[in-house]
Amino acid sequence: xxxxxxxxxxxxxxxxxxxxxxxxxxxxxxxxxxxxxxxxxxxxxxxxxxxxxxxxxxxxxxxxxxxxxxxxxxxxxxxxxxxxxxxxxxxxxxxxxxxxxxxxxxxxxxxxxxxxxxxxxxxxxxxxxxxxxxxxxxxxxxxxxxxxxxxxxxxxxxxxxxxxxxxxxxxxxxxxxxxxxxxxxxxxxxxxxxxxxxxxxxxxxxxxxxxxxxxxxxxxxxxxxxxxxxxxxxxxxxxxxxxxxxxxxxxxxxxxxxxxxxxxxxxxxxxxxxxxxxxxxxxxxxxxxxxxxxxxxxxxxxxxxxxxxxxxxxxxxxxxxxxxxxxxxxxxxxxxxxxxxxxxxxxxxxxxxxxxxxxxxxxxxxxxxxxxxxxxxxxxxxxxxxxxxxxxxxxxxxxxxxxxxxxxxxxxxxxxxxxxxxxxxxxxxxxxxxxxxxxxxxxxxxxxxxxxxxxxxxxxxxxxxxxxxxxxxxxxxxxxxxxxxxxxxxxxxxxxxxxxxxxxxxxxxxxxxxxxxxxxxxxxxxxxxxxxxxxxxxxxxxxxxxxxxxxxxxxxxxxxxxxxxxxxxxxxxxxxxxxxxxxxxxxxxxxxxxxxxxxxxxxxxxxxxxxxxxxx
Length: 616
What we know:
alpha/beta; Glutamine Phosphoribosylpyrophosphate, subunit 1, domain 1; Rossmann fold; 6-stranded antiparallel sheet; 19 strands; about 40% helix; globular
């Protein structure tokens, strides 16, 4: 994987002040060097500049970027972040059409495909990506993003100049761009966070290319094009055929995402999702006489402090032991201490450029850094719950009857610590409600569909557009921040398309949560692992961590210059910290409860301070 950045303005000749604009490009790529520590490069043309940092995974010897081709007297350039899983097939097709190649990289295949097929060529790509292509013939730049939104691409327009970057920090490093957050941005942070509206960059005037879209920017301005979206149609296969089809799609996704010129590993929690990915990977590597490396994550003394609840019924460690023996992997147990968990709260903000999932995200960042010391590529079990209906809110009656995001049904924690005057200025519930209703209205329901099945489709769509995107953002930023490429086979667009139309009676076959996925995994795993009750990503239950967070919050409250104090009510926060924690009532998802709320506010304070944000 890589990091990309650049700018374009057809009314500016960048070659006139070449040194100045090369400095800008170097600055935009340097702030993202963590995404690509192996190589770096820039391209500066008359009306466009591109910057790139590279994490070498495919074609290690060549494939440097930005890559430039010249055709018909015009210059074409690309900077690309991603992996193209159907590269061999697409390259073969292009060769048969008379095209030629100088490298073995997927970057050249993409640029050549654009030249051969035109701007809609992206429909032929199977992979995860965000990339920019400069077309010197048309004097236009195109920004493309993959169907699921695995890879990021942010942009803004300033004085007719398009500025883009894999991460927001690249945009903020462009001359004259100020880190500003307006009321809408604060509503994102407090009303929706750690999620954000798809397409929003939270910072004022910063946007994100939507998944399944591409942008076209040139003399006529900017246009947005949708090249892929979910479509509802009747599901006509039997359950037996559906199991067989699902099994094939999962196996195919995992196998093709093992494409790499460096060794791959997997994250293994002992749950059905990561265990299934691990079993398939291990089997494939054994055919090559290789052993798969696997990693599991936990917290120091969690065996002592763990508190079972409805959201987290069991610990992972015993199940990890079962799977790593069954799949015969070389396994590594990683643990995180309280001090590291706390310290990484703020580096996680640096990675995301936004307040994020508190210690859920900081721990992932810590673990990714450990894994990155040994591997560059990992496969994960992310996104299966969103696609197969594994979360509690797919099943609970109150989620069906409530007109709000099902992972944030209790809005009280979002408002109870803010100043009264802030609440008067920020329409948090109205903002969140409008966001929810927009997504419900655009849900592609089947004609004539009504009642419970229609509502399940709405909840599925909410998960794909919001919750899954938050987790994909977490996975990309925490992994790429330390030079690790994390792949997500369950977010394969073929799986998403197929499962979107499978009825709930099949997804939850015989009333078993994710019954279809479990049945599709038969033979790959022992039945006790396949039918283990869901337990989400681990978190610490150590009261010492909670005390650490509270003590630092008190330091913030006593600091007159802390920007958070402009927003929160000190008395309300003090009173909240005196109450016993309730781990069984998360305010976001399944993991973010009382301690995570405080940690999230600490992240907000750091974000406002470190990014020198002006509230406008």
